[in-house]
Amino acid sequence: MTLALLLACYEAPSNEMTSIRQTEEFDGDADLRIDVFPPAQLPDGTVLDLQDQSFRGVGTTEGWEVSLPLQDAVSIGGTLSGFVVNETAEVSVPGGESRVPGFFEAFVPDTIMSRQVETDDEGDFRTELVPSEGYTLAWIPDDEVELPFLVSTGESVLGASDLSIVLDEGLPLYGRVTHGDDDAGAPAGTVVQAVDPETGIGGPVVTVDPDGDFQLRVYPGAYELVVWNPDNFFFPTQRVDVSVFDAEGLLQDVHYDTLTTQTVYGEVVDEDGAPRANVRVRITAVDLQGTRDAELVVETETDSFGSYLARLVPGTYDFEFVPPYESALGPTSLEGVEVLEEGELEPLVLPQRPTVQGTVVGPDGAPVGGTLVRATELGFYRYVYETTANADGLFVLETAGGNLAWTFQPPADAMLATTFVNAKAGDLLEGGLVEITAGEVIEGDVSYNGEPVPFAVVDIRDSDNRLFATGATDADGNFSVRVDVD
Q1: Beta-carbon neighbour count of residue 157 at 10 Å?
Q2: What pLDDT, in 10s, does the model give residues 215-271?
Q3: pLDDT of residue 58
Q4: Is residue 146 within a helix (H) or strand (E), and if so which, with residue range?
Q5: Domain finish residue from 152, 167, 182
Q6: What DSSP letter does each residue of 253-318 carry, written as one string?
Q7: For residue 176, what is the domain's CATH number?
Q8: Mean pLDDT of 337-353
Q9: CA 456 to the chain's CA centroid
Q10: Is 36 within 8 Å of 70 (Cβ atoms)?
Q11: Could you list the residue range(s) of the whole structural domain that residue 282 is in?
Q12: Hey, is 379 helix, strand or coil?
């Protein structure tokens, strides 16, 4: 559907780098963005009232000097209306246009610029957005409203705008959720939702009736039909790709081979055989019997005797065992466990956490004292372990087994870049040393209406939202940070 966005005539600078001076090329490309968090007011008491803003496109050169002009937000408003069906009318068009409650959402992908606002009872909404190209806009009616939702990408919002929209009746996406050999209707509380696969935005959530029947309204296009039960922790989620283009809509049934659960139980102990309490057990389905593409994650915790139990639909599962953060024990896992009937698993032994001891050095081999050392689990519950290297660059850190994302953040006066390494605890050190890089310099200024903005926080991130560096503008609005682009 083509949107007629009524944008005011407004010449605003786009969120692109300006005054970029190339000096020397990197080895390889960088695709970074700068997030700016302006202060609430200036030292002279002037209130800025500015939103946080992102500037994209930093990369491929070394020693960039960038100018980041902050913009005032613009007022966005409108009304959400729709074609409300009148089931009792005996006319060719059984219904009429009416205002409806719902939500309006706007964001620029891969930035911090995002807003979601709820309409009032009359369907009216209002918010403020930073002017930019590339907005994703979404109009989503309430769950009780039988109307489609609308998503539009790549939209320009450069000035005050009326983004009123009228949702027509769309096309029906309907079917029945069943389970078992007798095709019984899904349990009470089962819900269905259509999700836009490009943006991940979901439409109204519809509860199936006692027979498992459901109907959604959607605009022509491709969707992911998601089925789950928020009241049943043991109910698998199914995701079905659908395409709805026919004027008659689409019939799409969803079936579960079985929802009967089996109880499995076991014990968690340490290396001395002592039971361990308060260990979190996360159980993730790999292959559910008869419902191969379904998803199921069940979590439980060991009791004071180190025992746990869980009810699971028959299938194959991965088990993760995570002790409390303050424990001296580390997490571990069991993979490919078949659960086809009720039974007891072998006792699970938690390992001791490994200890890493090393020295942080710079490119010249000199120790870098005061470096913050952080290790983040890449699995389990993403626990974070950290310490600070002493004056000789020496650090000792108790971590976890498995893959870790290491961050080495040197003190500001070291003139080095925060350095990132992915490695298991035993694979991190070479000769007992960790070398951190000098990095590449990104420097520039932050301004508003041509005046410098002092004391604004500046974050450098990549397209995966990883934080590469954090800095702040000085009294003249200038900043300089070093970035590890490798």
Answers
A1: 24
A2: 999 999 999 999 999 999 899 999 999 999 999 999 999 999 999 999 999 999 999
A3: 73
A4: none
A5: 167
A6: -EEES----EEEEEEEE-TTS-B--S-EEEEEEEEETTBTT-B-EEEEE--TTSEEEEEE-SEEEE
A7: 2.60.40.1120
A8: 93
A9: 25
A10: yes
A11: 262-349
A12: coil
Q: Is residue 1 in a domain?
A: no
Indicate the number of domains in the chain. Answer: 5
Contacts of 93 (CB under 8 A, 6+ apart): none
Same domain, 161 and 182: no
Together in a domain, 212 and 280: no
Q: Is 425 helix (H, G, I), strand (E, B) or coil?
A: helix
pLDDT score at 59: 57
Q: 167, 202, 227: which is the final residue of a domain?
A: 167
| pLDDT tens track for 148-167 | 999 999 999 999 999 999 99
Q: Is 340 exposed, middle or buried (0-12, 13-18, 19+ CB in 10 A)?
A: exposed
Burial (0-12, 13-18, 19+ Cβ within 10 Å), 326: exposed
Beta partners for residue 301, in sequence order: 280
- Based on the domain organization, do 317 and 332 belong to the same domain? yes
Establish how many alpha carbons lie within 13 A of residue 26's alpha carbon, considering only the half-sphere containing its beta carbon.
19
